[in-house]
Amino acid sequence: MVAPETDYTANVDAMLAAVTKKTKVVFLANPNNPTGTYISFVEVRRLHRGLPPNVLLVLDAAYAEYVRRNDYESGIELVATNENVVMTRTFSKIHGLAALRLGWVFGPAHVIAAINRIRGPFNVNAPAIAAGIAAIEDVEHQERAREHNTRWLAWLTQEIGKLGLKVTPSIANFLLIHFPETKGRTAKEADAFLAARGLILRQVGVYKLPNALRMSVGTEEANRLVVAALKEFLGRQ
Description:
- With 237 residues, the protein is of the alpha/beta class.
- The chain is built from eight helices and eight strands, in the order αβαβαββαααββαββα.
C-alpha cells in the first residue's frame, strides 16, 4: 500500500492511517525520490512512535549526504535506540559508485542477522568493497560534491523557474520539473526535444507524474545546456 503525499511530500498521518494488523514493514525515503522533498526528524520520530513495535520502519537515506537542513537527520540515532528501525544508505549518489551496486545498512542485531541468513554469499565483490572503503575516506571529494550540488541546485531551480516551469523544492541532487499539458509543451515532448540534443532527463510516469521530468544536477556545462535547451523548447510556439 502506498500512502498519499501532500505537496509531493510524505504525509505522516496518511502513512499511519494506512497501517493495519497485516503491516510488517513501513518504508520512508527521506529525502524522497523523485521529488527531492523531505520530512523533519521530528516528523520521522512521530511516525515511529505511531507504529506498533512489531512493525519495522525502514529509512531510505540514499541522498542524506546532500542535505543541509538543521531539522534533518538520516536516522542513525533512531536506529541506535530502537529495535524496529533500519537505515539504508548507498555509494551510488555522492560517492559516484553506482555501477558497483554497493550500499550499506544499519540496524538492530536481530534484523541484520535475518538479512545475513537470506542474502547471497557473494552479493558484494572485493573490488566494490575496496572502492567503498576508499570513498568513505575521501572526505574532500564528498565536500566538493556537496558544494557543487548546493550551488547548482539553487541555480537550476531559479533559472528553470524563470522559464515559467514549476520546480518542486529539492534538498537532494536532483529536481522535479513540472510541465503544462499544453500540446507542444508537455513533459514527453520536452524529453524528446532534450534527448535529441544529447540531454537525458528521467521520465517519472511510473511514479504517477506523467507531466514532470526529473533532472540530476550535472556539470556546469550540462546544467547550462539543459536550461538553454528548455528555453529553446518553450520558445518554439
